[in-house]
């Protein structure tokens, strides 16, 4: 159970009483008459064959307040797409699958490429971007939640708590970020958030001072969670990174577009576990190694847009500062784990910190060598300006695929 303490500059909505799910859902049904709700599920086809997605869908079939479910399906051939239609067909709610590898959506992508507006790489960011485009095209939702499809500890109360802040007409929040304790199987997880993001933000404060953006990011209890919700009007002007910087990029965009009193974070689960990425210490293009590089680049890019200057010397200082802070955090987490009877491998933790320190330099070198890089997918407002009928085309393509 969380306490009531409000840390940082972002409102915390705690789970203080384990309020019955039936009460939350009753309110959400009432809210849905004013603010219809949509759920976006970005999924790889392989997740249909994994241990998590089938129980997730069984839980979602019982959700009474959703007006729409949008499933983004990646890496599926025609036979696999047909299987996905059967798999998701049990959903009683209105739902649509975006077959991203199908000929109709590939044609849409080719049209966007001709205008230089298409996502530049495959991945979750691209999937989410197209799903958000369809949500705008369908016009069935005022509030939209998104969560991953590999959560092995899922129950529908997570969704209820996640979407509540942006669905309640009495609240003024445009965006809610889910958070939770990354504890499962008597182990403390969440290495990238614990051992990279938080120590890196603290190190950046030492090198650059207590900047508003750093205070903002450091206010989030779990900045890398893949669970967030927003009002549908947010979707028009948000620019989504196409790489592993998605979560940091979305937070950055919310800070750019909205006052912090329109942003909150909400406690959605006591226990959370999902598919774990390998460290991939020998491959900077895979696993947590690539994730850490992409996250660092996302943070550096945002600070650069605010006028902060980076150089090889500042990156060396940043790496050294980060390394010392991260090692101190390992002792803190080790003590926390031991007091709670959890397992924590200090050797593995230090190996992760050593890799992350190297990757801060790699991210910095990439940042300095590619000053014209534009990793963000354009906002839908820009795309619509260039191609006024694009949402109609996207909507028709998805409807034809699903007919």
From TrEMBL:
Source domain of life: Bacteria
A GO molecular-function annotation: transferase activity
Gene3D superfamilies, alphabetized: Spore Coat Polysaccharide Biosynthesis Protein SpsA, Chain A
UniProt protein name: Glycosyl transferase
SUPFAM superfamilies the UniProt entry points to: Nucleotide-diphospho-sugar transferases
Keywords: Transferase
